[in-house]
Amino acid sequence: MTTMKKTLTVATLLAASSVQAAGFYIGSTQSGRATGMGSAITAHTDDASSTWYNPAGILGVEKLDIQLGDTGIIPRLTFSPTQGAPAGVGETFNQEFSVSPPPHFYAAYRITEQLAAGVGVNVPYAARSNWEDSFVGKDLGHISRLAAWHINPTVAFQPHERVRLGLGFNIVRSTIEVRRDLNFLTSTGEIHIGGAAWGYGVNAGAQVDVVPKLLSLGVSYRGQVNMHFKGNADFQNVPASFEQRLVDQEVGGRVRLPTLVSAGLSLTPMEKLTVAADVNWQRWSDFPELFFDFGDDGFQPGTSDQPLRKEWENTVAFRVGGEYAFSDALTGRLGFVYDPTPSPEETLSPDLPDSDRLAFALGGGYELGGLKFDLGYQFVKLMDTDSAYPNMPGTFGGSAHVLSGTLGYSL
Fold first, then answer.
1. How many CA atoms lie within 13 A of 394 on its CB side?
2. What is the rounded CA–CA span in Å between residue 292 and residue 271?
3. Within 13 Å, how many C-alpha atoms sit on residue 317's CB side?
4. Sign (positive/negative) of CA torsion 121, 123, 124, 125?
5. Cβ atoms of residues 197 and 226 within 8 Å
6. 67-78: buried (b, 16+ CB within 10 Å) or exposed (e) per residue?
7. What is d(CA 52, CA 153) in angstroms, rounded to the nearest whole number?
C-alpha cells in the first residue's frame, strides 16, 4: 500500500502546459497585436491591452478603447521513454488533438490628459492536455486542465509629459481538473479531482520617453499570487479490497502563480517603423511543488509521503519584434521569442512536461474608422529535452501553432 499512498499524494496538478510558453504561462499572447510582435511591447504598448502588458500604457488611449479577442493554441507534444523507463522504450507517445481557446477583453478610458483607468479580463496561466490512451505514464498524468482567470482593474497617471505610471489589482479565479490512472497491479482504476480557488495580487508599470518619438523604455511588474484550492476527489473502478480506504472525499491543494518582471525598449528610427526588445524575468522558484491534501475521510497520506518537489528555476526570456505601417490603415508585424524551461532534468516528468522554446511570429492589423482588427500567429518549436526523472526517463519534444485575433473599437 505504500506505493499507492505515494502515487496519490504526489499530486498531479497538471499533465502538460499549453506548450506555448515555458512552465504554464501563456500571457505573452493575450492580444493579436502582441502575438504578432513576439510580445515585445512593454515600452510602447498604448491601447487597452496595456492593462495586462504594462498598465502605464493605457495613457496612450485618446479617449476610449475596447478590445475583445481569443487565442487558439494547437499543441503537438511527444514523449519517448528511454532506457530505465518501466515500459515503452523505443516508442513515441502523443497527446490527443486539442485546441485551447483562452479569451481576452480589455477596456480603457482616458479621464483627463494625465489620468486614465481600465480593466482587463484574460487567462494568462492555463494548461490543457490529454495523453493518448496507450500512454505508458497515465498513472503520472492523463487528462488535466487548469485555467487562471485574471480580472485586472487598472489606473495610470502621467506626472510628466515623458513619464507614465500605472498600477493595477489582480483578482484571480482558478479552476483545476485532473484525471489519472491508479495501478492496482491486477486492474486499473481512476481518480478524478476537481477544484477551484481565489487569489489576489498587484501589478505596476512605467514608461519613459527618453527621446520623444525615437526611444522609449518600459518596465512592468506582476506580483506572486497564492491560491489554495478546495474540491473533491472521485475514485472509480476501485477493487473491493481498497473500497474502504479509497472513498470519494474533499481535497485541498495549493499553487503559486510566479512573480513576473518585464523590461523593454522601443526604437522608432522612422515614422512608420517601430522595433522593440523585451527581457522577461519569471520567478518560477515561487512554484516549488505540486500537492493535494486529502481529507480525513477514507484515504489519508502517511507521514513519509511528501509533495512532488519540482525545484523549478527562475528564467529569463528574450523577445524582439517590430511593426511597419504600410498605410494609415494597414500594419505588418514580425517577432521572435526565446523562452527557456524552468524545469531541471531530475524533476521533469509527464505530469508537467516542458522544454526550451523558440517562437517565430508574424501578424498584421487593419483599421477602418474607429474599428480595428489585429491578427497574430506564432509557430512554437519545443526543443528536444531529456528527462532524468527516476520513474519515467525520456525525451520531450513537439511544436505548437498559436493564432490570436482581437477586434477593437476606439474613440
1. 25
2. 55
3. 30
4. positive
5. no
6. bbbebebbbebb
7. 10
The type of residue at 313 is E
Kind plus residue range of the DSSP H or E element containing 3: helix 2-9
Give me 117's grid cell. Answer: 483607468
For the entire predicted model, the pTM comes to 0.84
Rounded Cα distance between 315 and 302, Å, is 34
Write the pLDDT tens digit of every residue in 119-145.
999 998 877 666 666 676 666 666 677
Percentage of the chain modeled with pLDDT above 70: 82
Number of domains the chain contains: 1
Q: How far apart are the C-alpha atoms of 159 and 115, rounded to whole Å?
A: 9
408 close to 118: Cβ distance less than 8 angstroms: no
Q: What mean pLDDT comes out for the span 235-254?
A: 81
342 compared with 4, residue with greater pLDDT: 342
Best CA proximity match to 408, nearest among 152, 164, 61, 38: 61
Q: Which pLDDT band, with edges at 50, 70 and 90, does 5 fall under?
A: very low
Question: DSSP label at 364?
Answer: E
Can you list the pairs that 336-339 forms with residues at least 24 positions away whose Cβ atoms lie under 8 Å? 336/38, 336/360, 336/361, 337/28, 337/38, 337/39, 337/361, 337/378, 339/21, 339/22, 339/28, 339/315
Condensed to tens digits (0 to 9), the pLDDT of residues 258-304 reads 899 999 999 999 999 999 999 999 998 876 555 667 655 544 433 33
Domain span at 150:
2-410
Calpha distance 331→320 (Å, rounded): 17
Residues in the chain, overall count: 411
SS3 of 10-59:
CCCCCCCCCCCCCCCECHHHCCHHHHHCCCCCCCCCCCCCHHHHCHHHHH
Query: Which single residue is written with the C-alpha cell 515561487?
Result: 286
Q: Which amino acid appears at position 215 of this protein?
A: L
CATH number of the domain enclosing 74: 2.40.160.60
